[in-house]
Design brief:
binds nicotinamide-adenine-dinucleotide; Rossmann fold
Length: 374
């Protein structure tokens, strides 16, 4: 067995914690050998938790001195591009948390830097590595829903109330706002499942006075996919005393599919259950739900409706584990070792960034945006 792939963690805040279980579960494949944060206390705390003693307060120094093959970047959005570009220049493979960069130019520069250095560049869109996503992908590939005609994304949270005053996610200059922080997750997921988007229309609003520098807390958009499907996106950080959801719906020619919101959201299989209603999943001999209304009854019961939904079976669906963060880090290490393109490589994810930046441009100009123009 060869040595494990050695990773340096840059940014030891909230999400870095979800990136740690892989090192305990798969020690033969990956090893965390160094950690870095500009806040010493944060770096020390995470290093202790991960049993690592090589600690840095400056990522340039880590890139020069640490015993690492690649880096896992979990820092604020405006730092992603400079860190990925520096890592590539140092010959290190780079996995970076979403969103890839703060604008299209940064994203293109990151891809070019990785190409020039010949290193693997992957964006940590962990939803692509969740077993429930993989189950849906396999179901769509088997044609169970037929052609997808429409998609819907809902993200409803009260994040503004939750984030502390002055948090960088509330600051547009640091890459804050709901679009960069949350919408990009589901936009990428739906693109992964349905296909590329060619045109978008969007509006954004800034409701809370705690947001700065044009960061938005409401984003609403329509999407036109290359294959003719249409989509809607509604994202709000101001769902005060309201629902908390982060989910998507796909409507196909033969049936419908809904991911069900599961919180707390940092569990491994991020989306948890997915329910599907399609002829392939009907019990033999049952009537399609639309034909089942009893004469004289205006409304069908919930039981009637839900009776035609089936939950996708839990399991890993061919992935190494049920934890999407673990699966994504193993995929990164495997691609870097074998010189393969990751599923969420920079060039692919550029398509998701175009959707997001297209929505922002549409919100600014009041016009639909053809993504080929970005
Ligand atoms: N996949 C998910 O579900 C998910 C969830 C939350 C956050 N994220 C993403 O993870 C990234 C980090 O988010 P977070 O919630 O952990 O933020 P955070 O503020 O909790 O942590 C960021 C850390 O990066 C450090 N940092 C900033 N600049 C640095 C630099 N130049 N060098 C080294 N360290 C630096 C900060 O000191 C901080 O400790 C973001 O891209 C965010 O969108 C992903």
């Amino acid at each position: 067995m060869s040595e494990p792939f050695k990773i340096g963690l840059i940014g030891t805040g909230g999400i870095s914690r979800a990136h740690l279980p892989v090192y305990e579960q798969f020690p033969e494949q990956v090893k965390l050998t160094a950690v870095c944060d500009i806040v010493e206390e944060a770096a020390r705390e995470r290093a202790k938790e991960a049993n690592v003693d090589d600690i840095y307060l400056d990522y340039e120094k880590m890139l020069r001195e640490a015993d690492i093959d690649g880096v896992d970047i979990c820092t604020s959005h405006h730092t992603h591009a400079p860190i990925v570009i520096a890592a590539a220049a140092a010959g290190k493979h780079a996995l970076v948390e979403k969103p890839m960069g703060n604008n299209m130019q940064e994203c293109r520069d990151m891809i070019a830097a990785a190409d020039k250095a010949g290193v693997t560049f992957m964006i940590a869109h962990m939803l692509r590595f969740s077993p429930s996503t993989e189950a849906v992908r396999q179901l769509l590939a088997a044609g169970e829903l037929g052609e997808i005609r429409a998609a819907r994304i809902d993200i409803l949270m009260n994040a503004v109330g939750r984030l502390r005053e002055g948090h960088w996610m509330l600051d547009g200059n640091a890459g804050g706002g709901i679009g960069m922080t949350n919408t990009i997750h589901e936009v990428d997921l739906v693109r992964h499942l349905v296909g590329d988007v060619k045109r978008v229309n969007g509006v954004t609003r800034t409701v809370s006075p705690r947001l700065k520098n044009n960061a938005e807390d409401i984003l609403c958009a329509t999407l036109e996919f290359e294959n003719g499907a249409v989509g809607t996106v509604l994202c709000s950080w101001c769902a005060v005393r309201g629902p908390v959801s982060q989910q998507y719906t796909l409507l196909g020619e033969k049936g419908a599919l809904h991911s069900l919101p599961v919180f707390p959201i940092y569990r491994g299989d991020h989306f948890g259950p997915v329910v599907v209603s399609s002829p392939e999943r009907d019990e033999p001999g049952t009537e399609p739900v639309m034909n089942r209304r009893e004469p004289g009854r205006q409304m069908r019961s919930m039981e009637d409706i839900m009776g035609h939904y089936h939950q996708l079976a839990p399991g890993t669906w061919g992935l190494p584990s049920d934890n999407c963060f673990t699966n994504e880090i193993l995929h990164f290490a495997e691609c870097a070792r074998e010189g393969k393109e990751p599923i969420s490589n920079g060039k692919d994810i550029l398509g998701s960034m175009k959707v997001l930046f297209g929505i922002y441009e549409s919100a600014r100009t009041g016009k639909a945006v053809d993504l080929a123009s970005l």
